[in-house]
Amino acid sequence: MIFDMDGTLFETDTLLVGVHERIFQTLRDEKLYLEPTPPVEKLLGCLGMLLHDIWNQVMPDSTLAARERADELMLQYELEGLEAGEGSLYPHVAQTLRELHDRGIKLFVASNGLEHYVKGVAEHKGITSLFDGLYSAGEYETATKIDLVRRLLTDHDIESAWMIGDRSSDVEAGKENGLQVVGCAYAVYGRKEELAGADALISDFRELLELGGVEQT
């Protein structure tokens, strides 16, 4: 099973609301962005995109220097927040991942986030040991999630898997690599139509235990 991170395993707004305000306060203090702080909903709506695309959406009128500084600040403030115990996994994620792992199912993450952020979430939430690999666009410098998932499949010689995520990029990454796709309908960051094309939808993370091939005994 290959999982997206934000909006799938990690309830990102529990960390990002505070981070968002700090980023734009710092940009103002450093005279890099003097416009009003964009609504945090705009940032949350971009989760799943590459960082470059996120800032183009959130502050399209900004300079390259402002966007590059926002990249640095986002990672810094996210890691500081995680260190301080901020941010939560979605309900039942840790227990369900543990049960899937105990059944011998190989678990992976494929995220468009930065390497230290993706690994930081897994580490601080105590789930790193459950995964056979934590793949991020930041580490592998992939242009799309399709490419990232293809790299993961090749590295681990995987022929059959589920792709589990909440955004259209997850559906595309699964389908383009010949995988079954589970859409996480409990996530609030994307639009419902983004999950069109998924083979199954779940509204509770525990439903993964009942999918074909991993029926609960």
TrEMBL record:
Top-rank lineage group of the source organism: Bacteria
EC number: 3.-.-.-
InterPro entries: HAD-like_hydrolase_sf (IPR050155), HAD-like_sf (IPR036412), HAD_2 (IPR041492), HAD_sf (IPR023214), PGP-like_dom2 (IPR023198)
Keyword terms, alphabetized: Hydrolase
Keyword check for Cell membrane: no
One Pfam family this sequence matches: HAD_2
Keyword presence, Ribosomal protein: no
Protein name: HAD family hydrolase
Organism, as annotated: Paenibacillus solisilvae
Lineage of the organism: Bacteria, Bacillati, Bacillota, Bacilli, Bacillales
